[in-house]
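Journal club side-thread
Mid-discussion, someone asked how the predicted structure for our own chain would compare to the paper's figures. Pasting it here so we can look after the session.
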Amino acid sequence: MLQVVKSKAQDGSPDAVTRALVDELVGRRIEQYPADIVQLAKQCITDFLAVTLAGTRESGSQAIAAELLDGRDGEGPATLIGLPHRTSALDAALINGMAAHALDYDDVSLPMSAHASVVILPALLALAEKRKSPGRDVLESFVAGYEAGARIGMYMAPTHYDSGFHGTGTIGTFAAAAACAHLMRLDAERTERALGIAAAQAAGIRAMFGTDCKPLHAGKGAFNGLFAALLAARGFTSAPASVECANGFAATHAGACNGEAAFVEPPGGFFLRQNLFKYHAACYMTHAAANAIAETMAAEGLSADAVERIVVTADRSLDSVCNIAEPDTGLAMKFSLRTVAALSMLGRDTSALSSFTDEAAAEASIAQARQKVDVQLADIRPITRTGIRLFAKGGRTIEAEHDSGKPETDLALQGARLQGKFRALAGEVLGAARADELLDVIGTLEIRPDIGAMMRLAAKA
């Protein structure tokens, strides 16, 4: 539980926001974590490795790896996931972070307004492998970084994201720095410096959604967060109170300075319990529409031919997130409500990567189905809730809605679904036997003496 000296402000938040975050961060220990938090952390690692392995096949990921490995000998202390090379910890953080977010199939933290795992874990795992850290230290530091990033995200919300900043690149840089500083056991002063160095580098804009620059935000956030912690460990200086000070991160990055939201106790004591995983290979804000359409058509026994029109009603903030009307690439399809709705209407498997390719973007049947979909925007809360009106032939109208913002409470069920996703994605890269071996290692990570065994299995032989 966060222990801070409260100010006299009406919301009761601390005056020294950054230092309050730091004091909580440095005191976190895995012995204090409930069993479900450790389980959730391992599920995040499972999902991260799955999407990263599959993401290495994307052209943007390959371009980043080729550029950073050009002229290098392919050796170093850190694994490149899904590749037969090794490199420096910093370059591994960038390359693995880019691959992790390349498919936009990774988990989501609404408090952070970011894709948390794909920016924290590339930095943390590269550092841990370099330091030969045990699995329990990785799990402990992942949770610590996640919770710190979530508090900063809540402090900045909603104006930071609404103003066009991409939280994965901005808030995620802080989260990665926090996790790495924690793994190195930096004291409070140096951890605060690490957050200041992170603040000096954090960047990412939502104008890049649907392009290779969106996953680059994750890679750069991981690189910059790790770089911040490494520099702080060497005595590198930064301004204190970097989140809240005059001309600091919040003031220059459209932060709401919402101390009440940031410093309230999260449900169940951990923001990690609100983590959301993806089972559609597209932007998370398209998932509610996909689920509402698929569930309605299955319940009513409808085929796409029986549908005259579907009206999707979503929050107006999604217009700048996932409302590309006529996507012409597989990546842009992932950010098109109309397209994801059309795929669901057609009964396509939206968990399959093959549903979101350049070839699929040019497919006439998908374009025709998309013409049956209208997107209407309104003020809807929570923004993860989407409604549909399905007009069937014969004059019947069916209304339904879905809220994709509710985390799964059955962690055993969630674990089984994530293992299925892992086998489907990782198996294509590593082979079924090696993928299963890697799953076994992740499942017992808290007793593993060195994270290197897991990372070696995640490399391509």
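Post-session note: The domain at 17-277+412-458 is CATH 1.10.4100.10 (2-methylcitrate dehydratase PrpD).
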